[in-house]
Amino acid sequence: MEVFYYLVFGGLAAVVAGLELGKSGKDRVTTSQAFNSFKNNYVLVYSLMMSGDWLQGPYVYYLYSQYGFDKGDIGRLFIAGFGSSMLFGTIVGSLADKQGRKRACITYCISYILSCITKHSPEYKILMIGRVLGGIATSLLFSAFESWLVAEHNKRSFDPQWLSITFSKAIFIGNGLIAIISGLLANLLADNLGFGPVAPFDAAACFLAIGMAIIMSSWSENYGDPSESKDLMSQFKVAAIAIASDEKIALLGAIQSLFEGSMYTFVFLWTPALSPNEEDIPHGFIFATFMLSSMLGSSIASRLLARKLKVEGYMQIVFTISAFTLLLPVVTNFLVPASSVKGGSMSFGGTLQLLGFCTFESCVGIFWPSIMKMRSQYIPEEARSTIMNFFRVPLNLFVCVVLYNVNAFPITVMFGMCSIFLFIAAILQRRLMVVSDLHKLSTKAQEMIDEDEPLNP
Q1: How far is 41 from 35, CA to CA, in rounded Å?
Q2: Handedness of CA 279, 284, 286, 290 (dihedral sign)
């Protein structure tokens, strides 16, 4: 069965290499030297930040289980992380807009380093504090950095189309290549070198510290709305009004919550799904394979964005495919007989699910730069971080509810629910495209009327 893992990894690597090396002129955009320097700096920092996150991924669940906690206890730890992100995310997002995105990025580094340190303790309360800090850090990771990038990109008067290049490159390297290296490094530290499951968290803290040093020395500060007259509640109000008054923003938030909610549920479920009878599976290697799949997706996304294909159009297909891949565990449960033998290698049903999960991760790779592109188009600058963290409230609530009931429902039920949510995301994406097209038509018609008015007094 080990040969199967290598075949999947090797096949994906060959496809990704072929796509990257085979890019034509249509897939490349000519940019300036100043932009390239700016992009490379951001991609370097983003990659270091993501390495701090990815190094922890393969061994979070395993570390907690090694400390003697069962699935219910571990579920509550995950709930603490998502719950803190839900409760404090909007607050730190608003503070990022008001106090500065650079400060928020530094706060992310400090919070996550402290979270990594708590992993050395087997005490449940200490681990719970670490999860809370990690939840706050996650909110900053997925809002402050992107908000800083968009504002700085516009401040330097770069071509708006070039923003997609930075998004795609950051996802390809930070969410792909770095994730693969992180998965293999985590496997090396924890298993091959025998340092144990806490070692990847120590390595993560080191990379976060390096990234923080680069931010402090090379980034300038930017803000959403730094006016002294606006307090925290005023910023919440501005964000809430923007979401309520613009259907496009509301639809985008719902789509993001549905997809990311399913994605984070998948993160918690893939280990027990592939080893229902405690099969011996290489967690770090499988994680690296998932990230290689994500690289494949981001490579595809970069081509789609370079050719200026409508994001709202192709994402409908991506969400539909995602829905089918997470339905696979339900199908295999009914069609493929389960093994009753404890331990051993992955079952035939597990191999089918692994291929489906790799396809889902490819969809995740397409999703990230595409949702970033749509957010840069639809979300107003003055409350960008606040609105982005508003989007994460239903996402975190959904994940908390799922994890709280993790022992109440079979895994197949939870995968089926995620599949339904992804189908709904596809439908909402269709609606977003229709609303966006109607808005563009009405804007164009109004411009034509305004141009004709001076001619017809």
Answers
A1: 10
A2: positive
